[in-house]
Amino acid sequence: MKTEIIKIDYLCTGQSAIVVASEKIKSGGLVAFPTETVYGLGADALNAVACAKIFQAKNRPLADPLIVHIEDKQDLLRLSNEVYKITLDLVDAFWPGPLTLVLKKSQNIPLIVTAGLETVAVRMPDHPVALSLIKESQTPIAAPSANLFGRPSPTTAQHVYDDLNGRVDLILDAGKTSIGVESTILDLTQTPFRILRPGGVSLESLRTIVSDIEPYEGNKILSPGMFKSHYSPQAKLILIDGNGEVQVDRVRELAADFHLQGYQFGIMAKEENVEKYNDFKVKNLGAGENLTECAANLFSVLREFDREGVSVILAEGVKEEGVGVAIMDRLRRAQGIKRKYV
């Protein structure tokens, strides 16, 4: 398979690319497209054969469900028979945007999309290209991140091409995504409601609409992004929690040890600490007080280190508040550790 890349501007002023991409979706093909979070790998969510191609292209376990993307909240009624007022309150507050809602599935959704579960994960992306593609395709689009399974998620079309060239039909290139980490996943099928994956919408924001929300602490796979080991670079990642000089001293101590042992390693540091590691290979994650910037840069920095062939990445942790909770979740999973995050 030859993978085609078509550049498209953010506002979709030229619709020809969308028409081409929608024809691929309608014919059962795979299209990678940008959202506000990361690039997604899309197929017709109502076509089981097309959705099976997603798992094959990504080497994704069949036990890992897919998120279904829609462009009109009325489409919820096609996907779930249990849409209540609280669901619509959350939709009105956060859609389009980086919030995925887990609902009881309707019979319209193939079981391969839900990994055999009786629930379906749904969201409305906040990106003109994604919304235009769904509308033109005239079907909900199932779309996990457009990368090989377990790798850092793609925030540029080049990241998608690096992982999936020859595995997908088409990549729509609209530049870098804005948020950089995946959507928050909120399970509405049990009370209290449960956050299955932290992401672009914070717990604090969700609690302005629904006060009774708790983290999920079990080990069962109930939605995408719940595997213990996930979002991992090729290098071994070591996360150094904390802030301030204690964190810096620990990073420098580890760096000195790896240097003496002859390892090729890199340091992912907050902007204010970059100059403290000038005698080592260091990359800027973003200002520690600007967690939005850190989230946008996270996966790109991890992929840059992989391209440079380092075998170890020493990663400074960030404050666990707002989107910082999602950043730390991704870093812990990147080193194979799942931890309570609320």
Could you please describe the fold and organization of this structure?
30% of the residues lie in helices and 20% in strands. The chain is α/β, with parallel strands linked by helices and 342 residues long. The chain folds into two domains: 4-215, DHBP synthase (Alpha-Beta Complex); 236-334, Threonylcarbamoyl-AMP synthase, C-terminal domain (Rossmann fold), CATH 3.40.50. The strands form two sheets. Strands 1-8-2-3-7-4-6-5-9-10-11 form an eleven-stranded mixed sheet, with helices on both faces. It has a four-stranded parallel sheet with strand order 12-15-13-14, sandwiched between helices. The termini are far apart.
Q: Would you count the extended β strands for me?
A: 15
> Helix segment count?
10
Helix/strand-derived category reads alpha/beta
Radius of gyration: 20 Å
Major β-sheet annotation: 11 strands, mixed
